[in-house]
Amino acid sequence: MSNTDKTPTPPYYAVIFTSVRTDGDNGYEKMAEKMVELASRQKGFLGIESARDKETGITVSYWDSLEAIKAWKEHTAHKAAQEKGQTDWYKHYKVRICRVERAYSFDQ
C-alpha cells in the first residue's frame, strides 16, 4: 500500500512502525484498512507506505508535525487498535519517529 502523493518537500516527520505478527488474521486486515482511512483524514497527515510478508511488516506514515503525530497516537479509535495489537496481533513491534531532512526518488 502506498499513499505518498501529498508528501511535501522536507522537512517533515516519519513514523516507522515495524512489527512481527501473531498467527492468523483475527480481524487485523479490516482494522488496518480502517486505521489508514481514519489517519488519512487527520490534520497533518501526509501519506503512508506499507510492506508485509507472512510475518514481518514495515509501515511508514508521514506527518507535518510532532503535534499531529501525538494527536494521532491519542485518537480514541487508534488507541483501541493499539490495545488490540498488543493482545491479539503482534508478537513484537517498535515505533521510531524521525524528521525527514532530505528526500529524492527515481521514476522510470
Provide structural commentary.
It is a single chain. By secondary structure, the chain is of the alpha+beta class. It has a single domain (2-100), classed as Alpha-Beta Plaits (2-Layer Sandwich). 31% of the residues lie in helices and 36% in strands. The chain has helices at 28-39, 66-73, 76-89; strands at residues 2-3, 12-21, 45-52, 56-63, 90-100. A five-stranded antiparallel sheet has the order 1-3-4-2-5. A hairpin with a 3-residue loop joins β3 (45-52) and β4. The chain starts with a strand and ends in an 8-residue tail after the last strand. 15% of the residues are buried.
Characteristics:
Alpha-Beta Plaits, five-stranded antiparallel beta sheet, 36% strand, 31% helix, alpha+beta, 108 residues, globular, oxidoreductase
Describe, in short, the structure shown.
With 108 residues, the chain is an alpha+beta fold. Helix content is 31%, strand content 36%.
Sequence-ordered SSE layout with sheet pairings:
Layout: E1 2-3, E2 12-21, H1 28-39, E3 45-52, E4 56-63, H2 66-73, H3 76-89, E5 90-100
Antiparallel strand pairs: 1-3, 2-4, 2-5, 3-4
Keywords: Monooxygenase, Oxidoreductase
Domain ABM: 12-97
GO molecular function: monooxygenase activity
Whole-angstrom Rg: 14 Å
Shape, per Cα inertia axes? globular
Number of domains: 1
Assign the CATH architecture: 2-Layer Sandwich
Report how far the terminal alpha carbons are from each other: 19 Å
Secondary structure: number of strands: 5
The computed structural class is alpha+beta
Poorly predicted segments: none
CATH-assigned fold name: Alpha-Beta Plaits
Number of helices: 3
Major sheet attributes: 5 strands, antiparallel
The strand order across the widest sheet is 1-3-4-2-5
What is the mean pLDDT?
92
Q: Any idea of the CATH class?
A: Alpha Beta
Overall helicity? 25-40%
InterPro entries: ABM_dom, Dimeric_a/b-barrel, Jasmonate_Hydroxylase-like
Pfam family, one: ABM
Organism: Neobacillus citreus
Protein name: Antibiotic biosynthesis monooxygenase
